[in-house]
Amino acid sequence: MSSRSNEDFSINEKINLDCRFFLGDRPCKPHKQHGVHCENCDHYEPVNKRILIIKLGAVGDVIRTTPLLHVFRQPGVHITWLTETPAVLPKDKVDRVLKLDAANLAFLQAAQFDVIYNLDKDAQAIALTELIDAPEKIGFRMDQNVCVPVGDAARKKWLTGLFDDLNKANTDSYPEEIFEICGLKFSGERYIVSLHDSPPFNLELPRPLVGLNTGCGIRWPSRLWAVENWIELSQSLLARGYGVLLLGGPDEEERNTLISAASGAAYLGTFPLQRFFHLINEVDLLVTGVTMAMHIGIGLEKRIVLLNNIFNRHEFELYGLGQIIEPDVDCLGCFKPVCDTDCMNLLKPADLLQAVEAEISRLNPKSESVS
User: Fold this and answer.
1) Is there a contact between 256 and 248 (Cβ–Cβ < 8 Å)?
2) Last-in-domain residue among 181, 197, 219
């Protein structure tokens, strides 16, 4: 790195305001790494298109929207992403990640973009789509104080969210839907999940290691599989010599403690989000309901056994990584938070054991890490 004296200082220093790396209030990455200035910088990347992605949503919804970055990340395209969970986004694929807060909302109302892709239908997202300046707006926006689609591309996704029978009849996966909304064709682009800011666990447990994510979120008790079933499945897996690791967050703390005590399955407690990513990366196969852990597991390319009852199975893109196990009932895909028939518990531990053993037979040797 070269040093400069006051004699070299000039207020007429060349500045590339349109560079992908230029920040305006602090040194850019090429300057910090190589000491370069804008004049004759080999790292200069002029921006000719600025896009804003609005996907606030839950962690899993944000993760399963990342396949778009494979297409959006192009020379000359600057990507800003507004979300409630910035920690899950790949920092090397998004130029500016903004957490939904008052300071960033003030910035966005003064900013200018070429295109806004709003993929959320909630009130905050559609209001922001109206307020932020961009000549082209794609996805969902506001009309008469409610959510409406922007053109035909988003209309199908809008209608399936309004009418249960249309939602049940849908055969497109979520990635196919969002690619269509954005005027693109889904070609199997994968989730992008990065392991960063946290070391691996390097667990000393038997292999193959089966992760059991036992919860489903308090909003959807209809998706819960009984503690007794998890205990029996854990015992059966351990009896066959597999490692078993219980997974979950604070809502699952009590049930996982009970399952561990009754079965002997390993349970390490709860962890911050990035540590939880690493914990899931330790397992070879993941048994889970429709949860954040499911999307993390898909992003980390784990074998998956997915328990589903109230959602449309076509919604889930597993990328050939596993299988979906459902109860044999006529009301699948009812989208009810409370189930009158307790249909999830029609699934027996023996059903899950058979599915797990089928997926274990398809396992590749475990890699040290996934990024």
Assistant:
1) yes
2) 181
- For residue 257, is it within any domain? yes
The Cα 303–Cα 290 span in angstroms is: 15
* Residue 99 in domain: yes
Is residue 224 in a domain?
yes
- Are residues 159 and 80 part of one domain? yes
pLDDT in tens, 128-168: 999 999 999 999 999 999 999 999 999 999 999 999 999 99
Q: 133 pairs with which residues across the strands?
A: 112
What pLDDT, in 10s, does the model give residues 39-87?
989 999 999 999 999 999 889 999 999 999 999 999 999 999 999 999 9
- The CATH number covering residue 288 comes to 3.40.50.2000
The answer to whether the CB of 124 falls within 8 A of the CB of 56 is yes
CB atoms within 10 A of CB 163: 10
Selection from 54, 144, 62, 150 nearest residue 98 by Cα: 54
Q: Let me know whether 214 and 330 are in one domain.
A: yes
- What's 104's domain CATH number? 3.40.50.720
- The total of structural domains in the chain comes to 2
Quickly list DSSP for 145-169. TEEEESSGGGHHHHHHTT-HHHHHH
Answer yes or no: do 66 and 160 share one domain.
Answer: yes
The closest alpha carbon to 193, from 66, 80, 45, belongs to 66
| pLDDT score recorded for residue 6 | 57
33-40 LR contacts (CB < 8 Å, sep 24+): 34/1, 35/1, 35/2, 37/13, 38/13, 38/14, 39/13, 39/14
Model-level pTM? 0.92
Residues 65 and 162 in one domain: yes
* Residue 230 near residue 209, CB atoms below 8 Å: no
Q: How far apart are CA 318 and CA 212, in angstroms?
A: 17
Range of the domain at 100: 49-181
Q: How far apart are CA 22 and CA 31, in angstroms?
A: 10
Whole-angstrom CA distances from 294 to 106, 111, 146, 325, 370 are 34, 35, 31, 14, 16
Contact 347, 324 (CB under 8 A): no
Residue owning tokens 């079965």: 263
Are residues 139 and 238 part of one domain?
no
| Dihedral (CA of 300, 304, 309, 315) sign | positive
